[in-house]
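Workshop exercise sheet. Pairs work together: one partner reads the sequence aloud, the other fills in the structure field after running the prediction. Swap roles for the next sheet.
Pair: D.N. / O.F.
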Amino acid sequence: MQVLNKFQPDQTAAVLFAVWHHFKDKKKEGIKYKELIVHSAKGICNAWKKDHFSLIANDLWEERLTFPDLKENFTYSLAACITGLWSASQLFPDKKYIKIVGEMKEVLLKNAEKKEYFFRSFGRVDDERIDSSMLGLIWPFEIIGVKHLLAKNTVKLIKEKLVKDFGVYRYEHDEYDGWMFRTLHRKKGAGFWPLLNFWMSIILNKMNEKDEAMKYYKKVIGLVDEYIPEQIFHNKIQKSISPLCWSHAMFILASKELGLL
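Structure field:
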């Protein structure tokens, strides 16, 4: 019996991207990570079957699954794998990595172009809903440039559907509030996510919209006292996980992008 909820390719791909990014100007120093990189890249490649993964896959939020029989792909996960495999090829060249990058990119863009924006997942059954993680296709994975129509349309839809008073939410009707007792989630409605605010500010700045980028950045800064939490709620009842490393990391990246560091 296949074990569910274990295959999350974007995590492995993100490691490949991170290692390349760190050692891109000193590749010889990256040799000590060859085993990690090669095994990780080959693992992604072995699970890929021309236009979909052969395993049931988890999304980056660890909430949804795609299924091989439906030939489904999570858009964010595929973007991460494209950039991750490309990164691996830059450190330890392998024609197979580049071949699969081409296959992944072709199926990803072909499906996005049907709707002229990036949506959550596609296959025999599409999930056309917008998700803030689609920002990742613009940065850091750079599947398309900031001037591309897909980038502009996707950001526009995120603003229309997932932003409230400059707070960026993960997706429509998100119920996750971070509270969990053992395996039981309370699900009383999500807040907006600081890391998504910082992510949006980075992309808007790259789109030459610095004034607007600063509004998303300052939205968070104006509401936190010391640590940056996972979510921010507009009530005094719900509490969030705090501090959250991902939120702080994106804060540093956004501060650098906006010229504040």
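Discussion prompt: The chain has two domains: 1-114, 163-261. What would you look at next?
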